[in-house]
Amino acid sequence: MPEYIYFDLESARKLLPWLRDKLKRLQDLKAEVDELMDYGDRQQLVQYTAEIKKIIEEITHKGVIIRDIEMGLVDFPAIINDRPAFLCWKIDEDDIYYWHYTEEGFRGRKPIGNGENILSYT
After folding, report:
1. What is the pLDDT of residue 122?
2. Rounded distance, CA 34 to CA 31, Å?
3. What range defines the domain where residue 91 resides?
4. Ranges under pLDDT 70 in the chain
5. What's the half-sphere exposure (Cβ side, CA atoms, 13 Å) at 32?
6. 87, 78 in Cβ contact below 8 A?
7. What pLDDT does residue 2 have?
8. How many domains does the chain have?
């Protein structure tokens, strides 16, 4: 498994308001870039692309993995039941409700609350 910053549920939840704002801005910028690709101003395209790159770097610097900008899907690396896993969150969800092991992906999402042992750093 690559080098990750690991999250417990509390530390991941603390990032959600900030992350929601960043992902919303990414979604808006991506829509602008998609439109500009068809008939746009090159200078504006360069500006939006630079802002997208900056936001992605801000998010990944905190240890969050962006899986899909359009879906607003991210993973927080975690250790669950003594195995590498991800806490999984989508921008339209009020809280972090799901997790999956690293090899399972989005389709393997499981609801939190079935007795998982999520490593805590507190």
Report:
1. 44
2. 5
3. 1-122
4. 1-2, 120-122
5. 18
6. yes
7. 63
8. 1
